[in-house]
Amino acid sequence: MSSFVGVVVSDQWLQSQFTQVELRSLKSKFVLVKNQNGKFTIEDVPSLMVTLKAFSALLTEDEIRQILGESYSDMSTEIDFETFLRVYLNMQGQATGKLGGSKNSSSFLKASTTTLLHTISESEKATYVTHINIYLADDPFLKQFLPLDPATNDIFNLAKDGVLLCKLINVAVPGTIDERAINTKRVLNPWERNENHTLCLNSAKAIGCTVVNIGTQDLVEGRPHLVLGLISQIIKIQLLADINLKKTPQLVELVEDSNADVEELMGLAPEKVLLKWMNFHLNKAGYEKTVANFSSDMKDGKAYTYLLNVLAPEYCNPLTLDTKDPVERAKLVLDHAERMGCKRYLSPKDIAEGSTNLNLAFVAQIFHGRNGLSTDSKKISFAERMTDDVQISREERCFRLWINSLGIESYVNNVFEDVRNGWILLEVLDKVAPGSVNWKHATKPPIKFPFRKVENCNQVVKIGKQLKFSVVNLGGNDIVQGNKKLIVAFLWQLMRFNMLQLLKSLRSRSRGKEITDADILNWANGKVKISGRTTQIDSFKDKSLSTGLFFLELLSAVEPRVVNWNLVTKGESDEERRLNATYIISVTRKLGCSIFLLPEDIMEVNQKMILTLTASIMYWCLQHAAEEGDAALSPSNGNGSTTYASDASPAPSISGEDDRSSLCGEISSLSIDDEALDTTGSSQCENENTEIATV
């Protein structure tokens, strides 16, 4: 497996100001202009800068030209790439000044990360270091490096080999990574380190982190703002994991006993549920204000005082409310919380300054320590009846993570609630089928009038018909009403369309053949057979897949070093099958594939998830061969089977990302030269294409 080589800048400080994704994007734009004009001059900068998202809304072309004129008397001066980067940073400073940039920027990664604000909060760093020291103190491998000193850069240095981040993901969502797949040695070679970071990023996506503009090279270099941003997301997911009706059915007390109110609660983001919980108790305590955020509304410490007094009156200090100094009041609040058993992560100054991330973490800690909710069995039973069955929950999770991985503007917290106004589905459709949405006829949330939601959803169904989806019995109102079975069926077709879209874009070079499940199945069987193994499957419903052995043989066939056969079981018992399934998922992510299935999907042979897993491995293999410049992936097996080949030029990502981590594994990015595929597969496989009516 070849290791990724990023854009290298001779000035280390300059390189540290950019992510690899940003460097590659800027380098490609720089080279394009240089190739067109024969050289790149200061005069070329304004027209290029205004095309960049970071500047387009902040500085005009004339403003950029005026700023440059103050430093360069001759606009025809030719510059190299590094000088261009310095000019870029100078423009950032000007744009930040125009924005009135905050000194204390949040380190949570958003849908897209720019270098406009690369400062990190020392308070947040100290908090996350404390969290790591507590939760990973007993880890067999990491305990030799702990505790970390929050006053140093130990956290960034330790993160460079990927082990810390992988372990932290497992703390946040236990069982996400099979730790047998993590390379744990005191000194790792570059290939092993890259594997760990690839495993980390793909696993982070699988628990809901947004990692659009971060690559393995950024983690290898220990970029502080990116490492801290990823860590903060992971910790946030851990702290908010139980703040939902499924994990904490007592939350039903926050609403009236009606289906509509409970459904509304189920659709709220965990942060919103936490605010609703906090205001529920503040109202009971007689606090007159409504807390709407975790920053300015928390600065004076009064909300905390009322909240803790109602949750733990036995530890109440009557002096807290009488104290005039916000910092002193915050100190008394923290003393109160500590007596309740809440871990002390933030300082009085953090509360007084209104640190959003740290206040959110603190309120979550209070919730976990003592939520003060009723244990009324009738209400809890009502909440449990409202939650989904196991299969529906698993499918909702898969589609939610897949949608969030596409990099659309909206973030999905609950698929069945969030898609009901149609907007998110329109965003996804526009991502997987660019130009398909008529935005003039779409209404963006918040949507006051119900008929506007129906209009959005009607357009979703209309586009589905145009894309030849099976939408029998599906109307826009079904989506508005939250019909889960029909929504799941439509989303599966969207995911499938996304998986096959790049194949269609390659048809101009391959006689326009359509790729079927049979082609993917034949490729997998052929790959395993050519590797010298005998396991074969009849379909993606083949019960033998439950042992996991076929996938381990397939993974070993595409990359022999990735599977440690000493860790593989025979798959004869449920426990052995689970061990194999968890290992398969981690090894596949370690290889470079972004997948969202669970071990149960392999053990129970979920046809849809099995198909996406196989397609993702197939894409990685073909893409890897294209990068290596191989014309053929496998020789003829001597019995007339087709040779599989890949196109010499990698296909673009359907989501528009340049990042190879997005290209390599996304279900959305399957690319094959179908001239080399055997499309004569068995009729049995041809009949297994999943339709909406059968989901």
UniProtKB/TrEMBL annotation:
Residues 122-239, 268-371, 393-499, 514-622 form the Calponin-homology (CH) domain. GO terms for biological process: actin filament bundle assembly; actin filament network formation. Coiled coil: none annotated. One of its GO terms (cellular component) is cytoplasm. Residues 633-662, 674-695 are annotated as: Disordered. The keyword Zinc-finger does not apply. InterPro entries: Actinin_actin-bd_CS, CH_dom, CH_dom_sf, EF-hand-dom_pair, Fimbrin/Plastin. The keyword Cytoplasm applies. Residues 634-646, 679-695 have a biased composition (Polar residues). Pfam families: CH. It is found in: Cytoplasm, Cytoskeleton. Keywords: Actin-binding, Cytoplasm, Cytoskeleton, Repeat. Signal peptide: none annotated. GO terms for molecular function: actin filament binding. Interacts with F-actin. This is Fimbrin-3.
